[in-house]
């Protein structure tokens, strides 16, 4: 019987480590390839509190392959006619995120690069003391330099109070008559009151 020398032992250990490394990399590659794509999220901050805002609705630009639909689908809206993509088992319902923004404090939004680089708009919903709602719209065009962070005043005028923000990635659509209009293929919703 022959004895194993030091060189043989080192070679066997190196071969075993190489096999383990290749197996680990192979398993990791399969896990990454099969992993779900995370939702594109915004971050909202106000008065010392930060929340992650997942999409309220999210569809492909073609408005066919939706992965997130609104929690409550209102009849007569576009989302009432949409369904989840056929091969999307993790399709779910989006919700409005609540974040208390006291009057006089700003709401700050942090945008991921893929959202900041896209044409976007945000509908700011304010309320008057009488209960009447006032909508204001801001868009990427209002920020000549690409903005990764936005500051929204909660009380831009004495009688206005911010109660919500709907952040959208719009696409241009055309109806049967040829009339063109914008509709969102992705939406994030924040209630601030």
Report on the structure:
This protein has two helices and twelve strands, in the order H-E-E-E-E-E-E-E-H-E-E-E-E-E. It has helices at residues 6-34, 113-116, and strands spanning 42-46, 49-53, 57-58, 68-70, 92-94, 97-98, 107-110, 121-127, 133-139, 149-152, 161-174, 180-191. The strands form three sheets. Strands 3, 6, 8, 9, 11 and 12 form a six-stranded mixed β-sheet that branches. Strand 8 (121-127) and strand 9 form a beta hairpin. The protein is elongated, with a radius of gyration of 25 Å. The model has no long low-confidence stretch (mean pLDDT 83).
Short descriptors:
alpha+beta; elongated; 6-stranded mixed beta sheet; 2 helices; 12 strands; 193 residues
The major beta sheet can be summarized as: 6 strands, mixed
Beta strands, count: 12
- Would you tell me the overall average pLDDT? 83
Number of helices: 2
**How are helices and strands ordered from N to C?**
HEEEEEEEHEEEEE
Strand content: 35-45%
Weakly predicted, low-confidence segments? none
Radius of gyration: 25 Å
Report helical residue fraction: 10-25%
Based on CA inertia axes, which overall geometry fits?
elongated
The secondary structure category is: alpha+beta
Measured distance between first and last alpha carbons? 83 Å
